[in-house]
From TrEMBL:
CDD domains: AdoMet_MTases (cd02440). Residues 50-128 form the Methyltransferase domain. This is Methyltransferase domain-containing protein. The lineage of its organism: Bacteria, Bacillati, Chloroflexota, Ktedonobacteria, Ktedonobacterales. It comes from Dictyobacter vulcani. It comes from the Bacteria.
Amino acid sequence: MSNDSIHQLAQQYGPFASFTHTDIGPIAYDYHGDSPVEEMQRLLERYAQAGSQILDIGCGAGQTLCSLAGRVRHIWGIDRNQELLTLARQSLVDNAISNATLLSGDVVTDDIIEQIADDSIDMAFSQRGPNMNRQLVRKLRADGIFIQELVSSANSYPLQEIFGRKSYSPYIYGEQQVLLSQYAELALLPISSKEYMYESYYRDRDHLEMLLQSHNGTALISDWRWGDRPYLPEHDRKALDLYVQYNTTSKGIRLLGQRRIFVLRKRSEPFYPIDCAIHNSRTSNQ
């Protein structure tokens, strides 16, 4: 893949696919407490142990995958975006990484993950990507770790509101306790849960507009309930001007961010009382 192609992908996806040094990236951040970026990196380095096998769910262009490959026995990456996977494969070649396998497909509907043996993964992680599901949990060994970084509901809230794209209907399944309850049904129980609020800053209106015209910007002002609604200058620029008017600071144009980071462990024993009763009954009959 040529340097021009890589640059175009970086401009298109930006922070959405973990591209850092791009024209659409912010000029500064304010973290009101710890940084979710630093915390995610700390957790990944802690659990990516020598001799382990790990899985990157939604690996994108493979930046994180490549950075962890030297720490582990084998790393798997899966993504459905062919453009980003092509770049990830090139990164493996460029960095002479031989202990990585990339899979192309959807973790919900495709059988591609069956290439990974059950009970073989020591740690799986998802950075603003798919949730864990029953098929993926089977790949985790007992006491295996799952780390997830989520974009929370307050992310870019004022921007969505001014653009008229903020959904006010309740979506209970996006709430933390509901998600953790769903994970408990998959035998995943939390050992850590943290929330992060921060602000990023953009140089001027043109800089912020460049972000909004990217894939990352579409995600900022869209809602899954009505699908992607990309930024259209002829339709949305007046709303952008109003947002700039209200959110210009001495540091630049402010954009609100919110993240959650979960660490969960796969339980090896039954969780619900009825499961224990069934388990004990089967054991006594053997």
